[in-house]
Amino acid sequence: MGPGPRGSKPKKALSRRNIFLYGTLIVVAMYYMLPLYVMLVTSLKGMPEIRLGNIFAPPVEITFQPWVKAWSEACTGLNCDGLSRGFFNSVRILVPSVVLSIIIASVNGYALANWRFKGSETFFTILIVGAFIPYQVMIYPLVILLREIGLYGSLTGLVIVHTIFGMPVLTLLFRNYFASMPEELFRAARVDGAGFWQIYLRIMLPMSLPIFVVAIILQVTGIWNDFL
């Protein structure tokens, strides 16, 4: 049988439902973007223009002096050396925390989804319970622990804390994602003689980009909210 006729695909007409949907999304997006717009245009104005009170108007004369002053002279607590120190400290905490937590959580989720071992269900239950424990409950014990091991007040200690706090939720996400993959892929790899790390690196990892993106977004936003 020969190939069917090739023609241009019919264009989908905009229905009332789609118009309402897209219109609602545009309004919601504008609602959330408006404060960011006001903050940005205000930061580019001088004080005489800010005092006029027209917060939505674009700057008549753009100035970057507020940015320079905030970066190098803004006071945070007792320090008046700008936001640069806090920014770079946050980056030094963010990068290793995200990398470590996602690597460990992805391996944990892969092992829990595809490799049954003694105590795996108990381990998974503990992780789920840990995901619902408020971090405020664990602050005081963590302070004592970090003080005892000599990491209190250090960036390394904060990296460890953020990595641990991210484990329950991220492991749950990776475990559910890997469990939703076709089991035949795992069985075929096992029949071909592939081991734990071969299956993870060559099969599971290349197919896991969506969940890695979700995990990165969750960790980056969560850790960056603790801006130092």
Describe the structure.
By secondary structure, this protein is mainly alpha-helical. The protein has two domains: 16-63, no CATH class; 84-224, MetI-like (MetI-like fold). Helices cover 68% and strands 0% of the residues. The chain contains ten helices and no strands. The longest helix has 31 residues, at 84-114.
Structural key phrases:
228 residues; mainly alpha; MetI-like fold; 68% helix
Any idea what the radius of gyration is? 25 Å
CATH homologous superfamily title of the largest domain:
MetI-like
Distance N to C terminus = 68 Å
Order of H and E elements: HHHHHHHHHH
What is the C-level CATH assignment of the largest domain? Mainly Alpha
Number of domains: 2
Known CATH architecture of the largest domain: Orthogonal Bundle
